[in-house]
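User: I'm new to structure prediction. If I give you an amino acid sequence, what do you actually give back? Let's try with this one:
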Amino acid sequence: MSKQALFQQFAKTGKDTSKAESKKAVIYTRVSTKNQAEHNQSLPFQKKACTDFANKQGYEIVEFFGGTHESAKNDERKEFNRMLNFVRRKDSDIGHIIVYSFDRFSRSGLNAATIKKDLEKEGVHVCSVTQHVDSKTPSGVFTQNMMLLVGELDNDQRREKTMAGSIERLRQGHATFKAPMGFDQKTENGEQKITVNATGKLIQKAFKMKANEGLSNEQILERLRMMGLRIRKQMLTAIFKNPFYCGKIVNKLIPGEVVNGRQEKLISEDIFLKVNQIQARNNHGYKHKAIDDTLPLKRFVYCSKCGTLMTGYEVKRKKLFYYKCNKKGCGSNKSAQHMHAQFNSFLKTYDLAPDYIAPLKHQLAVTFNELTKQQAEVKQDYRATIKAIEDKLEKAAENLIDGNIKKAMYDKLVTRLEAELHAIKEEKRKATLELSNLEKFVDFGTSILVNISESWGLGNTNEKHRIQKLLFPNGISYNTETGHYRTKRTNTILNLIHTMSSTYSTKNKRPISVSTNRSVLVAGTGLEPVTFGL
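Assistant: Good question. You get back a string of structure tokens that encode the predicted 3D arrangement of the chain. For your 534 residues, that looks like this:
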């Protein structure tokens, strides 16, 4: 054997060109949008042109891919990736991917060029029916890459024009996005029209519940549920924060701008701002631990110097707790142990003396009976409203039978009326006090009043908070220097006790009787059992 033959064993092997030489091919077709896929003939035309090209080149078509709408802005496409996986299989001998034009393959520019280069390393070449370029030569590869970059440039230019148009329309008050819940959105005679629908009417009520009644989001959600609208708490919060409902438009395309929209207003600007002021106050509370077993007076007691609610903190080294005023320049500070002891002593001044238990019970009973008279009037009003809605439902049924209204309008009207009827009946139920346990309620209320300070001292955190808020609805102020508590307003029951204490002497042995007609002494059914304002 010659030396040349011996050295031949050291020669390097060349790149496997078996795929490149393969005549097997796949065809990939696509359009950009669903509308194009359904209403034009581009896909069948692309498929025929690619098939004719393959036949002329002598290629064997193994499989068809695409045949649907896929955006080529990026390469995260279902059919496109299915095709790539197919040609890259180890047992695949596909040598060519046939497309109508390079922008059908991809419009992702450099990313597309990288994919094409990786395919070429595996012996798979992309062929365009309308752009005849030899991908096996450097100049041909360069030309193909330029065509792919042109596709990306075209995309970017289109997007820029679209965004410019969208920005201009936004600034003119048009919604270039889907309107939020509560609105119907349609185009009439080329003009966009956004109107409040039935769901929007319920959302409008939610805004008014928050603004006018100060209800919590949980209470509002419960009312909406009774009216037939079920939404999540996060959705309600997002609705309250969206100025679209009061006729404004904000969008990321116009950062820092708030423009007057052309949509129908669901609520006024004043109501929207009021709701968000309430929400902001509530959110502020989440930054503090509202329930603190060691600091029950936190954010309930005001600093007497500046009127700021006092917060609390722990000196971990000493394991001691303190209340403090965080207002700059004030800095009032006091031991929690001292403040709790002084608050307990302050509550003792409101403890009900045994001599006043009987007259207080009598007064509570008188007040309760007075309240029942008021309730009878309220119930009558509710019954009248319910009757009016029921009459409307009956009238609607008659109009449907007589052909005066269409079925769609009837269904819409009935849905609204039934929601209103359900809500009114629920309000009627809530407004009705249970009168069968009057004696039990009176006994329960007076048992707390006999020793308010002890009830507070022995209660858990929630019970302490309940007693504090019921006795002093507007909070209470504290002077860290003198150690004195002051309150501008106390519960009306406590005022009654003070009135009785100043009017009647414990030395007076004759029967004590109070028979004022002050129904305001009863706070309602906020607690279980009813505690008559306690």
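You can read the tokens as a compact description of the fold. Here is one thing that stands out. The mean pLDDT is 78.
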